[in-house]
Amino acid sequence: MSIGNRVFLKRHQADPKLVERFGKLPTADVADCLSRTSALSPEIRLQSSPEKYMCGVALTVKARAGDNLMLHQAMKMAQEGDVIILSNEGDRSRALMGEIMYKYLADYKKVAGIVIDGPIRDLDVLAREKCPIYATASTPQASYKEGPGEVNGPISVGGITVMPGDIVLGDRDGVVIIPKKDAAQIIDQAEAITTNDREKVQKASVGNIDHSWLTKTLEEKHVEFIDEEFSL
Protein backbone atom coordinates (compact mmCIF):
# COMPACT_ATOMS: atom_id res chain seq x y z
CA MET A 1 0.00 0.00 0.00
CA SER A 2 1.38 3.40 -1.01
CA ILE A 3 1.11 5.34 2.25
CA GLY A 4 0.61 9.04 1.59
CA ASN A 5 -0.53 8.43 -1.98
CA ARG A 6 -3.77 6.47 -1.81
CA VAL A 7 -7.55 6.73 -2.13
CA PHE A 8 -9.93 4.88 0.18
CA LEU A 9 -13.18 4.26 -1.68
CA LYS A 10 -15.28 3.55 1.42
CA ARG A 11 -15.90 5.39 4.71
CA HIS A 12 -18.07 4.89 7.74
CA GLN A 13 -20.47 7.83 7.92
CA ALA A 14 -22.43 9.46 10.70
CA ASP A 15 -26.14 8.66 11.00
CA PRO A 16 -28.05 10.82 8.46
CA LYS A 17 -30.73 11.55 11.07
CA LEU A 18 -28.09 13.04 13.34
CA VAL A 19 -26.70 15.11 10.47
CA GLU A 20 -30.18 16.52 9.88
CA ARG A 21 -30.60 17.44 13.55
CA PHE A 22 -27.19 19.08 13.85
CA GLY A 23 -27.94 21.05 10.69
CA LYS A 24 -30.53 23.08 12.62
CA LEU A 25 -28.09 24.17 15.35
CA PRO A 26 -25.58 27.04 15.51
CA THR A 27 -21.92 26.10 15.73
CA ALA A 28 -21.47 27.93 19.05
CA ASP A 29 -23.93 25.69 20.88
CA VAL A 30 -22.41 22.52 19.46
CA ALA A 31 -18.86 23.68 20.23
CA ASP A 32 -19.88 24.20 23.87
CA CYS A 33 -20.96 20.56 24.03
CA LEU A 34 -17.55 19.45 22.77
CA SER A 35 -15.63 21.17 25.59
CA ARG A 36 -14.91 24.13 23.28
CA THR A 37 -12.14 22.21 21.52
CA SER A 38 -13.72 21.31 18.17
CA ALA A 39 -13.82 24.54 16.14
CA LEU A 40 -11.44 25.12 13.24
CA SER A 41 -9.05 28.05 13.37
CA PRO A 42 -10.85 31.36 12.68
CA GLU A 43 -8.38 31.81 9.83
CA ILE A 44 -10.70 29.48 7.86
CA ARG A 45 -13.58 31.83 7.08
CA LEU A 46 -16.85 31.73 5.15
CA GLN A 47 -16.27 33.10 1.63
CA SER A 48 -19.72 32.65 0.01
CA SER A 49 -23.24 33.81 0.91
CA PRO A 50 -25.28 30.77 2.01
CA GLU A 51 -28.85 31.06 3.20
CA LYS A 52 -28.62 28.23 5.76
CA TYR A 53 -26.11 26.36 7.90
CA MET A 54 -23.63 23.97 6.32
CA CYS A 55 -23.95 20.44 7.67
CA GLY A 56 -22.81 17.19 6.07
CA VAL A 57 -20.42 14.27 6.31
CA ALA A 58 -16.69 14.74 5.79
CA LEU A 59 -15.05 13.62 2.56
CA THR A 60 -11.46 14.21 3.60
CA VAL A 61 -8.58 15.21 1.35
CA LYS A 62 -4.92 15.35 2.35
CA ALA A 63 -3.00 17.48 -0.13
CA ARG A 64 0.64 18.39 -0.55
CA ALA A 65 1.23 22.11 -0.06
CA GLY A 66 -0.20 24.05 -3.00
CA ASP A 67 -1.38 20.92 -4.84
CA ASN A 68 -4.98 19.93 -5.65
CA LEU A 69 -4.57 16.61 -7.49
CA MET A 70 -6.40 14.64 -4.82
CA LEU A 71 -9.05 17.33 -4.54
CA HIS A 72 -10.02 16.56 -8.12
CA GLN A 73 -10.29 12.87 -7.22
CA ALA A 74 -12.49 13.74 -4.24
CA MET A 75 -14.70 15.82 -6.52
CA LYS A 76 -15.20 12.77 -8.70
CA MET A 77 -16.18 10.71 -5.65
CA ALA A 78 -18.35 13.33 -3.92
CA GLN A 79 -21.99 12.56 -3.16
CA GLU A 80 -24.93 14.80 -2.33
CA GLY A 81 -24.69 15.94 1.28
CA ASP A 82 -20.91 15.56 1.55
CA VAL A 83 -18.64 18.28 2.85
CA ILE A 84 -15.29 18.16 1.07
CA ILE A 85 -12.65 19.19 3.60
CA LEU A 86 -9.02 19.57 2.58
CA SER A 87 -5.73 19.89 4.46
CA ASN A 88 -2.90 21.72 2.70
CA GLU A 89 0.12 21.57 5.03
CA GLY A 90 -0.59 25.15 6.07
CA ASP A 91 0.30 26.54 2.65
CA ARG A 92 -1.14 29.96 1.82
CA SER A 93 0.53 30.67 -1.52
CA ARG A 94 -1.75 28.94 -4.05
CA ALA A 95 -5.49 28.70 -4.69
CA LEU A 96 -6.80 25.16 -4.37
CA MET A 97 -10.18 25.83 -6.00
CA GLY A 98 -11.86 28.28 -8.34
CA GLU A 99 -15.22 28.88 -10.01
CA ILE A 100 -15.22 25.85 -12.33
CA MET A 101 -14.48 23.32 -9.57
CA TYR A 102 -16.91 25.06 -7.23
CA LYS A 103 -19.80 25.02 -9.70
CA TYR A 104 -19.25 21.32 -10.41
CA LEU A 105 -19.50 20.52 -6.71
CA ALA A 106 -22.24 22.98 -5.78
CA ASP A 107 -24.57 22.69 -8.78
CA TYR A 108 -23.93 19.22 -10.17
CA LYS A 109 -22.80 17.17 -7.18
CA LYS A 110 -24.95 19.16 -4.71
CA VAL A 111 -22.46 18.90 -1.87
CA ALA A 112 -23.41 20.40 1.48
CA GLY A 113 -20.27 22.50 1.59
CA ILE A 114 -16.54 22.88 1.01
CA VAL A 115 -13.78 23.59 3.55
CA ILE A 116 -10.32 24.46 2.22
CA ASP A 117 -7.38 24.97 4.58
CA GLY A 118 -5.81 27.38 2.11
CA PRO A 119 -6.74 30.03 -0.45
CA ILE A 120 -9.29 29.90 -3.27
CA ARG A 121 -9.76 32.18 -6.30
CA ASP A 122 -12.54 33.69 -8.44
CA LEU A 123 -13.87 35.28 -5.27
CA ASP A 124 -15.83 37.93 -7.17
CA VAL A 125 -18.12 35.08 -8.26
CA LEU A 126 -17.91 32.73 -5.28
CA ALA A 127 -18.71 35.47 -2.77
CA ARG A 128 -22.24 35.64 -4.23
CA GLU A 129 -22.82 31.87 -4.41
CA LYS A 130 -25.12 29.97 -2.03
CA CYS A 131 -23.22 26.75 -1.39
CA PRO A 132 -21.02 27.31 1.69
CA ILE A 133 -17.30 27.47 0.99
CA TYR A 134 -14.75 28.18 3.69
CA ALA A 135 -11.12 29.11 2.96
CA THR A 136 -8.30 31.15 4.44
CA ALA A 137 -8.04 33.81 1.74
CA SER A 138 -7.95 34.35 -2.02
CA THR A 139 -5.16 34.53 -4.56
CA PRO A 140 -5.04 34.31 -8.37
CA GLN A 141 -2.04 31.98 -8.13
CA ALA A 142 -3.07 28.48 -9.27
CA SER A 143 -2.14 25.19 -7.64
CA TYR A 144 -0.08 22.25 -8.89
CA LYS A 145 -1.56 18.87 -9.85
CA GLU A 146 1.22 16.45 -8.99
CA GLY A 147 0.37 14.83 -5.64
CA PRO A 148 1.00 12.94 -3.49
CA GLY A 149 -2.06 12.98 -1.30
CA GLU A 150 -4.89 10.91 0.13
CA VAL A 151 -8.67 10.76 0.04
CA ASN A 152 -10.83 9.44 2.92
CA GLY A 153 -8.02 9.25 5.44
CA PRO A 154 -7.47 11.18 8.68
CA ILE A 155 -6.44 14.82 8.26
CA SER A 156 -5.71 17.86 10.39
CA VAL A 157 -7.46 21.09 9.39
CA GLY A 158 -7.37 24.34 11.32
CA GLY A 159 -5.83 22.59 14.32
CA ILE A 160 -8.54 19.91 14.51
CA THR A 161 -8.37 16.23 13.56
CA VAL A 162 -11.02 15.18 11.03
CA MET A 163 -11.93 11.59 10.18
CA PRO A 164 -13.81 10.62 7.03
CA GLY A 165 -17.52 10.48 7.79
CA ASP A 166 -17.40 12.95 10.71
CA ILE A 167 -20.10 15.62 10.80
CA VAL A 168 -18.96 19.05 9.58
CA LEU A 169 -21.13 21.96 10.75
CA GLY A 170 -20.61 25.54 9.63
CA ASP A 171 -22.22 28.97 9.92
CA ARG A 172 -20.96 32.55 9.89
CA ASP A 173 -19.08 31.97 13.14
CA GLY A 174 -16.96 29.24 11.58
CA VAL A 175 -16.72 25.45 11.34
CA VAL A 176 -17.08 22.76 14.01
CA ILE A 177 -16.12 19.10 13.61
CA ILE A 178 -18.40 16.60 15.36
CA PRO A 179 -16.72 13.18 15.60
CA LYS A 180 -19.16 10.57 14.34
CA LYS A 181 -18.55 8.40 17.40
CA ASP A 182 -19.61 11.28 19.70
CA ALA A 183 -22.52 12.71 17.70
CA ALA A 184 -25.31 10.68 19.30
CA GLN A 185 -23.97 11.42 22.77
CA ILE A 186 -24.17 15.22 22.48
CA ILE A 187 -27.11 15.93 20.16
CA ASP A 188 -29.75 16.16 22.92
CA GLN A 189 -27.53 18.44 24.98
CA ALA A 190 -26.80 20.68 21.99
CA GLU A 191 -30.50 21.02 21.14
CA ALA A 192 -31.26 21.88 24.77
CA ILE A 193 -28.59 24.59 24.81
CA THR A 194 -30.05 26.14 21.66
CA THR A 195 -33.54 26.21 23.18
CA ASN A 196 -32.23 27.62 26.45
CA ASP A 197 -30.16 30.28 24.68
CA ARG A 198 -33.22 31.57 22.86
CA GLU A 199 -34.83 32.20 26.25
CA LYS A 200 -31.65 33.87 27.54
CA VAL A 201 -31.55 36.19 24.54
CA GLN A 202 -35.11 37.31 25.18
CA LYS A 203 -34.34 37.99 28.83
CA ALA A 204 -31.08 39.80 28.03
CA SER A 205 -32.88 42.17 25.67
CA VAL A 206 -34.83 43.54 28.65
CA GLY A 207 -31.87 43.55 31.04
CA ASN A 208 -32.69 40.32 32.83
CA ILE A 209 -29.31 38.59 33.26
CA ASP A 210 -28.24 36.37 36.15
CA HIS A 211 -24.92 37.71 37.47
CA SER A 212 -24.72 35.40 40.48
CA TRP A 213 -22.02 33.28 38.86
CA LEU A 214 -19.93 36.40 38.23
CA THR A 215 -20.14 37.54 41.85
CA LYS A 216 -19.19 34.07 43.07
CA THR A 217 -16.23 33.78 40.69
CA LEU A 218 -14.85 37.21 41.55
CA GLU A 219 -15.05 36.39 45.24
CA GLU A 220 -13.22 33.12 44.69
CA LYS A 221 -10.50 34.99 42.75
CA HIS A 222 -10.18 37.54 45.59
CA VAL A 223 -10.84 40.48 43.27
CA GLU A 224 -10.56 43.80 45.11
CA PHE A 225 -13.11 46.58 44.50
CA ILE A 226 -11.78 50.08 45.26
CA ASP A 227 -14.15 53.01 45.56
CA GLU A 228 -11.61 55.50 44.21
CA GLU A 229 -10.19 56.71 40.91
CA PHE A 230 -7.04 55.13 39.55
CA SER A 231 -3.97 57.33 39.93
CA LEU A 232 -0.25 56.94 39.29
TrEMBL record:
Cofactor: a divalent metal cation
SUPFAM superfamilies assigned: RraA-like
Superkingdom in the source lineage: Bacteria
Residues forming coiled coils: none
Pfam families, A to Z: RraA-like
InterPro entries linked: RraA/RraA-like (IPR005493), RraA/RraA-like_sf (IPR036704)
Enzymatic reactions: 4-hydroxy-4-methyl-2-oxoglutarate = 2 pyruvate; oxaloacetate + H(+) = pyruvate + CO2
Listed EC numbers: 4.1.1.112, 4.1.3.17
Oligomeric form and interacting partners: Homotrimer.
Function: Catalyzes the aldol cleavage of 4-hydroxy-4-methyl-2-oxoglutarate (HMG) into 2 molecules of pyruvate. Also contains a secondary oxaloacetate (OAA) decarboxylase activity due to the common pyruvate enolate transition state formed following C-C bond cleavage in the retro-aldol and decarboxylation reactions.
Similarity remark: Belongs to the class II aldolase/RraA-like family.
Name of the protein: Putative 4-hydroxy-4-methyl-2-oxoglutarate aldolase
